[in-house]
Amino acid sequence: MAEMITLPTVDHGEFKHSRNDRWWVRPLLQAVAITGFIFYSLWVIFLESDNYKVEGTHYISPFYSPDLELGFWPIEGFSPALLLIWIPLGFRYTCYYARKVYHRAFLADPPACAVSELRKVNHKYKGENKLVFIVSNLHRYFFYLAFVLMIVHIIDFFLAMKFEDGIGFGLGTLLLGFDALFLALYVLSCHSCKHVVGGGLDCFSCNTAVNARYKSWKFVKKLNENHHKFFWLSLLSLIVADIYIKLLINDVISLEFDRWI
Ligand code: FES
């Protein structure tokens, strides 16, 4: 019978652990990144609601997509992004990977593998059945909405090739393309997508339609293995595209520089 190895437990203040690496670096960086993203989003939504479209192009900040300035947005001076932001927010908040991140980075519950929680030793996990964690059970519905949003962002990419003098391609088109690409990879690699595509089947080879679902499931499964990367890349590409659009609006970068073709 194999001998059980017990590692020595180290008590660094509140956290007991048996690790000798810098286990706290990752949750710390994640907490900084998520906090930065939240503050940036609040600034964009509440204080930059007049700065999201570049004249002479179809460039639009991904925070404000789809463009709701179609005459029915009723409240003067109130950000139209507010009507949409709950969709990506809800999708990310309920994301399985994001849950791991914020439970580790903000709640230290636990902060890393093989590190103790801050809560009492005998604390019992009671499931996600109380506010605010109960919202996590809505993830599959947020997935359907995020899927629609993904299509809108892909359309935005194609629209970004339309200029006043015809079809073209600029740095803005490329950045909006990255935003659409990484959002699509993030949405399509979602666990709920995997279930929609290949879940609820007893047999993968029974007929052609089921076999097609099996092949799609294998593809989504491959994407799903990199879901955590797409989570961060989609956040990064969203912010980069938004910053670039603000630089164009404020004439820090000219449209001549932007336009390649
Ligand atoms: S978006 Fe992360 S699991 Fe669905």
Question: What layout of secondary structure does this protein have?
Answer:
Elements: E1 10-12, E2 15-17, H1 25-47, H2 86-94, H3 96-105, H4 139-159, E3 162-163, E4 166-167, H5 171-188, H6 191-198, H7 208-224, H8 227-249, H9 255-258
Antiparallel strand pairs: 1-2, 3-4
This protein binds FE2/S2 (inorganic) cluster.
H and E order: EEHHHHEEHHHHH
- How many alpha or pi helices? 9
Number of strands: 4
Structural class: mainly alpha
Describe this protein's structure.
51% of the residues lie in helices and 4% in strands. It contains nine helices and four strands; from the N terminus they run E-E-H-H-H-H-E-E-H-H-H-H-H. Helix 2 crosses helix 4. It is globular and about 65 Å long. The protein has a two-stranded antiparallel sheet. A two-stranded antiparallel sheet has the order 3-4. The longest helix is centred in the first third of the chain and has 23 residues, at 25-47. The chain has 261 residues and is mainly alpha-helical. It starts with 9 loop residues before the first strand and ends with a helix. It has one domain. The chain has helices at 25-47, 86-94, 96-105, 139-159, 171-188, 191-198, 208-224, 227-249, 255-258, and strands spanning 10-12, 15-17, 162-163, 166-167. Bound molecules: FE2/S2 (inorganic) cluster. Residues 91, 95-97, 139, 143, 190-192, 227 line the site of FE2/S2 (inorganic) cluster.
